[in-house]
Every structure is written in C-alpha cells, then in structure tokens.
Amino acid sequence: MASKLLLSLSLLLLTLTLHTSCTTALAKRTNPNPTITTTTDFIKSSCKATRYPAACVQTLSGHASAIRQSEQQLAVTALSVSVSKTRSCASFVKRMGSVKGMKPREYNALRDCVENMNDSVDRLSQSVKELGLVMGKGKGKKDFTWHVSNVQTWVSAAITDQDTCLDGFDGPHVDANLRASVRPRVVDASQVTSNALALVNRFASKYRSASQT
C-alpha cells in the first residue's frame, strides 16, 4: 500500500514538473524579453530619421542587447556595422581584381575602388573611436561639439569615398556583369554608412537639446 502511494506521489510530482517546464517554455516563446522588445521599438523609431529605414532596422536589430536605449550606443553600433560592411565590400572587390581576362580599365576601376573603400574603412574606424570619447568623464559641451564635428566630417568623407568607387564603374568601358557584381555591395555599404551619419546627427541633436534644458 505504501509503495503504491509513493508511486502515485512520484507520478504526480513528475506531471507537475513537466507541466511547469512546458508552461515556462511556452511563456518564453510567447512573451519575448521585454527589454529587447523595448529596444527594438527604440531602434525602429530612431531609424525613421535615416534615408534607408528598412536597412537601418535590419542591420541594427540584432544588436539590441548592446544598444539598449542609448542614443550614443545606437550611433556607435551603426558606425561599427558600417565599418564591417565596408571592409567586407573592399575584400570582395579586391578578390574580383584577380579574375583573369579583365580589361585594363576594369582592373583600374577595381583597384581604385579598393583604395577608396579602404580609405572609407579607416575614416569610419576612427569615427567609432572618436564617438566613444564624447561622453567621457569631464567632457563639456565644447568637447562634445569638437568630437562630434570630427565624426560628421569623417563619415561624410567615407560616403564620398564610396560614391567615388561607384563612379569608376559607370560608362560602357566596364563589363555589365562586373558592374552588377560590385555595385550592389558598394550601394549596401553606402546606405548603411548614410544611416550611420543620420544617427550620429540625431544623437548630437538630442544631446544639445538635453543640455539646454
């Protein structure tokens, strides 16, 4: 009798344990982390200030845990993503230069593009470091303006580098297939960089407004 009672209690305990586990798992699936959800909403709202909001949300949503709801971290992350995209594009274009049978003008266009994209990576990388300095201990409004101005100048120059790369593939002297391979990747990097600049500008505007109140 005692053994049957013990078995019944064990089965009941196992049933309750399984029910609790299933309920918890279901809750995790149906109720996502509220912090991540709130940050994603913050990213979507912020991306409305960019020229390419869909690309902005797509590239930044995966970094929600790092961004949280910080305007500065959002801008820094956007710049970091731009560095990654631009560097990847430069590597791809460089590999294209090793294709045999290429015309001299096409090879020169690829070479110049790689140079421009590498310059863009350098400017963007420096911008990430610079933006990390604006809110350091003891930084005043004058320091903030100086650092942000540097970032805005460098990111704008990075966009110009990317546009210059694209210019090299215009005209009939470049094979259509080569243009079709390179152009989408450069455009992608350029759009992400444009969005990053918009978020830097948004951060600067928000900071200045807050400092005046």
Automatic annotation (TrEMBL):
<dbReference type="GO" id="GO:0046910">
    <property type="term" value="F:pectinesterase inhibitor activity"/>
</dbReference>
<protein>
    <recommendedName>
        <fullName>Pectinesterase inhibitor domain-containing protein</fullName>
    </recommendedName>
</protein>
<dbReference type="InterPro" id="IPR006501">
    <property type="entry name" value="Pectinesterase_inhib_dom"/>
</dbReference>
<dbReference type="GO" id="GO:0004857">
    <property type="term" value="F:enzyme inhibitor activity"/>
</dbReference>
<dbReference type="GO" id="GO:0009827">
    <property type="term" value="P:plant-type cell wall modification"/>
</dbReference>
<dbReference type="InterPro" id="IPR035513">
    <property type="entry name" value="Invertase/methylesterase_inhib"/>
</dbReference>
<dbReference type="Pfam" id="PF04043">
    <property type="entry name" value="PMEI"/>
</dbReference>
<feature type="domain" description="Pectinesterase inhibitor">
    <location>
        <begin position="38"/>
        <end position="199"/>
    </location>
</feature>
<comment type="similarity">
    <text>Belongs to the PMEI family.</text>
</comment>
<dbReference type="InterPro" id="IPR051955">
    <property type="entry name" value="PME_Inhibitor"/>
</dbReference>
<keyword id="KW-0732">Signal</keyword>
<feature type="signal peptide">
    <location>
        <begin position="1"/>
        <end position="27"/>
    </location>
</feature>
<dbReference type="GO" id="GO:0009505">
    <property type="term" value="C:plant-type cell wall"/>
</dbReference>
